[in-house]
Design goal:
binds 2-acetamido-2-deoxy-beta-D-glucopyranose, disordered N terminus, signal, alpha+beta, F-box-like_dom_sf, F-box_dom, single chain, 4 domains, eleven-stranded antiparallel beta sheet, 39% helix, F-box domain-containing protein
Length: 396
């Protein structure tokens, strides 16, 4: 125990003298509260409140205006630091768990840098699962998960081959802007102390956060502003940029056209692929018999047969012979299904097409492109995303 104390103690001394950025304000708040109360009656609620404040207040690298450390001689701070650790680790397991559960990812990272005991706890999949789901859940699909597993496997191989390279966390953190101060702290510890297991959820989270891991997802209205992609959704590889809170998208080559890159893709233009069909494969439509006028659909479309498909939004329309009066409409019994793309002006060759309900696979030609598989949209949230993307002007 004494040895442990000394280790933590000296680690703090080191980290304190080397860290460039100030510690987050909540750390000093905890220090403040634990220094006053720890040896008498350390109250769980004190720490809980401090951490809670930090969750709702500014967190990152913003020096606390009331910073306790700045006004206190160093030796006093040291005592307080020991108090903090003793305090947290002496808490009943369940209480400590409650605290860690409420910490944001940055909090887990910084607390994990305090000592080995806290590090193991803060790396636990249990705490990271929730953060993973909250931040990335909506845009990560099975394809992204498979990609990560493949990435992990290759990382494990290369890690055993290239020993002596910077360990996992250091490499992950090397591009983790706001966490650069953690790196400076970690560089003072021994290498084993800071490596994050490659197959942990924390490792995946950090790989996403740092933009090191490119994952497959789909982008609405690709190459933003490009009129040729209005109300479509295309597959791309994405990398997150934490400085701008946006993504870089890499679209696969289109025939002779090389890879297209788009920067600054916002969160609301991304989605996890709703079906497993890869971008070059025809999706097997399973809704053809149910299509009624007014249904919202997405249909695969590609310019020519070498291009990948994108998903295009449309609605099922009425046949020319039908005036749309519900009492007489028999369109749902017809073999022909009319699809309308009302973002295009009446008369545009992109505004209407029709497919055969019985044997539709892929229809089209080199001039108008090829229409592939159809998904009927049943969920309101899926439909409303398309409505929000509706262009301000009618397209030619
Ligand atoms: C549909 O046809 C019925 C019967 O002819 C008529 O009463 C009704 O007004 C029509 N509805 C519309 C929307 O035109």
């Amino acid at each position: 125990m004494l040895f442990f104390l000394i280790t933590c103690f000296s680690f703090f001394l080191l980290s304190h003298s080397f860290s460039i950025r100030p510690l987050p304000s909540w750390v000093s708040e905890i220090r403040l509260s634990s220094s006053l109360w720890f040896w008498k009656e350390l109250s769980f609620f004190t720490i809980y409140r401090s951490i809670k404040n930090s969750l709702f207040g500014g967190f990152w690298g913003i020096p606390s205006k009331m910073s306790f450390t700045e006004k206190t001689p160093l030796h006093k701070v040291e005592n307080v630091e020991v108090g903090l650790e003793m305090g947290l680790l002496d808490l009943p397991e369940l209480v400590l768990e409650c605290i860690l559960e409420r910490l944001p990812p940055e909090g887990l990272c910084s607390l994990g840098g305090v000592c080995s005991s806290l590090r193991d706890r803060c790396m636990s999949d249990y705490f990271w699962k929730r953060h993973m789901k909250e931040k990335w859940g909506r845009i990560l699909g099975r394809a992204a998960y498979r990609e990560w597993q493949w990435h992990m496997a290759s990382r494990k191989d290369s890690d055993t081959l290239e020993q002596g390279k910077p360990n996992g966390l250091m490499r992950l953190l090397s591009r983790f802007g706001p966490l650069s101060w953690i790196r400076s702290r970690l560089s003072n510890s021994t290498p084993q102390r800071s490596s994050v297991p490659v197959d942990s959820i924390m490792s995946w989270y950090l790989a996403l956060e740092t933009g090191r891991f490119w994952f497959p997802a789909q982008v609405y209205n690709r190459e933003s502003g490009h009129v040729g992609f209005m109300l479509s959704c295309y597959d791309a590889e994405l990398s997150y940029d934490s400085h701008t809170d946006t993504f870089q998208a890499r679209y696969p080559p289109h025939g002779r056209r090389t890879v297209a890159i788009e920067n600054g893709v916002s969160w609301d233009r991304l989605r996890a692929p709703p079906v497993e069909t890869p971008p070059h494969d025809l999706h097997m439509s399973d809704c053809l018999n149910e299509l009624h006028p007014g249904d919202h659909i997405e249909i695969q479309w590609r310019r020519n047969k070498e291009f990948p498909y994108g998903w295009w939004y449309g609605i099922v329309g009425h046949l020319e012979s039908c005036d749309g009066n519900e009492s007489y409409c028999r369109c749902h019994n017809s073999e022909t299904v009319v699809l309308e793309f009302n973002q295009y002006t009446p008369g545009s060759r992109w505004r209407r097409t029709s497919i055969n309900r019985k044997d539709h696979r892929e229809e089209g030609n080199e001039a108008d492109g090829f229409y592939g598989g159809i998904r009927k949209l049943c969920r309101n949230d899926e439909i409303s995303v398309w409505k929000q993307l509706w262009p301000a002007e009618v397209l030619e």
